[in-house]
Design a protein that fits this description.
10 helices, 0% strand, 227 residues, mainly alpha
Length: 227
């Protein structure tokens, strides 16, 4: 893992703030209404569950792919190219320049439907345990930003590394999600602004290009090793 990867993971979560508000804003507002006492505990439990779900998905996929990479080292390069292209696609999607990634979210909807049925049973959340369960479900919703980030994290070929990076990603989403939960109009306006969306798009595209560059370096190193 590169020393900059944890910062990049946090940056991906923060950069996707506007997208997070669109995907998860409704439930965050509902949980944050009158956020005090028990309501606050439910709200925080929801966010803990949501971030934990990202971490578990990243760790599981990273662990599984690690075995494949041990057998076929070239798989790591393929994964990094895929992650780079997905990050670029996400940047284009958020900017409104290209909506191809929406098809990937539609495919993910098939996985989300049975989990959504479980999530409905936890709504409205009346206890921290229900908030935690709801967060665990909500982390599986079809979201191109999550898909792009988890594949990028898993491309490191380690369950521990992928889990850690997705934990950092989840932490990066907190400013937007807590902002809308507590009805911070200033933060909402910032994260929904055109300038923020363009900055987000450029950040994701830059992250994708950097990932592609790292994959290219990996190819050169692999070729040198084979000689």
């Amino acid at each position: 893992m590169n020393a900059l990867d944890p910062l990049l993971a946090i940056g991906l979560g923060l950069a996707g703030a506007g997208h997070c508000l669109g995907m998860c804003g409704g439930i965050a507002i509902a949980l944050g209404m009158g956020a005090e006492g028990k309501s606050t505990r439910i709200l925080y439990s929801y966010h803990v569950g949501r971030i934990l779900s990202y971490t578990m998905v990243g760790a599981t996929l990273g662990f599984a792919l690690g075995f494949g990479i041990d057998v076929q080292p070239g798989l790591l390069i393929v994964l990094r190219y895929t992650a780079g292209l997905l990050l670029i696609a996400m940047g284009l999607y958020i900017s409104g320049w290209w909506h191809g990634l929406a098809h990937l979210e539609q495919l993910g909807a098939g996985i989300w439907r049975p989990i959504q049925n479980v999530a409905r049973r936890c709504m409205p959340a009346k206890s921290p345990a229900q908030g935690l369960a709801l967060g665990l479900c909500w982390g599986a919703m079809p979201c191109g930003l999550i898909y792009s980030s988890v594949i990028w994290a898993a491309s490191h070929g380690s369950g521990f590394t992928a889990g850690l990076l997705m934990l950092m990603f989840g932490m990066g989403t907190l400013p937007a999600m807590l902002g809308i939960s507590f009805l911070s109009t200033q933060l909402q306006s910032l994260f929904k602004s055109r300038g923020w969306r363009l900055g987000t798009a450029l950040t994701l595209i830059a992250a994708g290009l950097w990932t592609l560059q790292q994959a290219g370096i990996g190819i050169q190193g692999h070729a040198h090793h084979m000689m």
